[in-house]
């Protein structure tokens, strides 16, 4: 059983944070289609200030609402025009980065027909992207691209065939001798194995870091963390064992036998976001013979109590990386759970452990925090 | 320019065919969630006769309709219960296999929140699967699985980065010497590069055929055929040249340099469904130095006029494969376009060409026809 029940429950309750400018700000009319729209779809749109505008055709509907725009306060109500089309703009600019959302049409929950779909909250949700000032690090550029492989691997413990996505760095397929280290990278609660490649752009982040010479080329593996087996509200009863068995006994041996990996502990890392960070902490600390680099993205931090309770931690852990979005650091509930990641990080450093804290500016418990976390984490990996 | 404008227009207008049993048939209450539902979603459901049942929450809506159920006749109207939930069952059993659909809620088009999404009709549509009596050939089985690779390749001619999905057969990644033939496999109008792997199950079909020893292991490449550049209704103005340039000058060299392919013409095939079949016919006949095996799935047939107008056809084409769903063979508009594929096939045979016609029983212009076409086509490939 995981030790972090209270924390998991808190994480699941933290809503994406939206920060609004003062009312009265002039809304600039430079709206453009979101980069996450379906091909050719004009709406939703985003302007240069971060306001989002929606347009939904439902001529006979009584009420149409967008879940985005006023986090926790009812979203954005759309207004019906004379043409029967519903439109509306958020009351203020939204945080940079990726946001999940959905529509409420006459009391029913539907996706926005203009947006592409991303798995979050245990359903395929609509997604919108507010262009970040630093979006270049996950842009599709004219650099050598790695490949993302969809893998179906046998899982005897669950009597099923499971899926993983495996990123191999540029050149992997051309050189038949070279072997690579591996990062196992987990999604959060309500998400699945698609998250890190689809909305996380993990493959593009690595392509770009490698092209700039900022990180050693490595393989990334993302599979389903079985995080949705626990129902919302009862997440405290989540049992790590079934997923740990799939990861340690089934997926890692599969990857090591099907890809050209370096399979010793010094060449294996694990990281995860939110509940995936909790999984990462529990699994790596119980398996330090298999992992040397650990990343918790918005998913707790390492305390000296953890270190002292885990034989070999000081000798074996080459990197204990912790990150947060700056907005969730300010959240009272989050603070009450994680304590002070900065103080924890300093305590580990003082004990001679390579401990790093990264705080993503002006982002909440959302994917831009985690894209940036991966960007910061990757160059620190596989140094020996 | 393509020569088949009239045919393309016809194909785009042929609606999926639904065949209903006589009214009065007793509907069996053995409904189960569709295999294409989102995880954990109970609806839509399908019973053993092929009836589909829908359930949509939209308590304040005035009208909810499902586009499936009475092809071309308005679909299935749902009825609101006392609990505010809309439910309804198709008026009869539907054809076996995969169907695209969507909801109409108070005049707006939305997807079914219970179903997964599949790109068709130039949008991500909902999908439902009516279990086919022969579904075993595309089932996920405990056999060695190949990998599906997402590839981003540079396209100078369109000044963009394009995506392709590449299937490599089981064992490809373990043996660093063996080289494989390649099938280029195209989707239809309104679809994209995801279609053949997502709703076509091309990877599973090949895994199973290879496990049974029925086909030589080969690589499959699916990219976007740029078929949606032409608007519905003006499909006759589709220009093949931009896509031909991407395929011949950019994608094929990329695949041959990044994967262990056999790159001579005897080891390269092309096939496509519907408008992708039209693309296949035009591109292969203009590039017989590059392709030896050709498959047109619900996308026209080869006439002796084609053969006579194409120098080298008889010597170079190792297989001219044509297929249809039996229901579209009965469609008057389709007949008027394709003439008589059986007579055409016989004429080619008489001229000494390896010409094969396959008709999928009891299916229309839909994916079960094309899954079966791939199953029939694959064992005939790469015989030299």
UniProtKB/TrEMBL annotation, chains A, B:
tRNA-binding among keywords: no
Domain of life where this protein originates: Bacteria
Keyword Methyltransferase appears in the UniProt entry: no
Protein keywords: Signal
Signal peptide: 1-21
This protein's name: Esterase
Species assigned in the record: Cellvibrio zantedeschiae
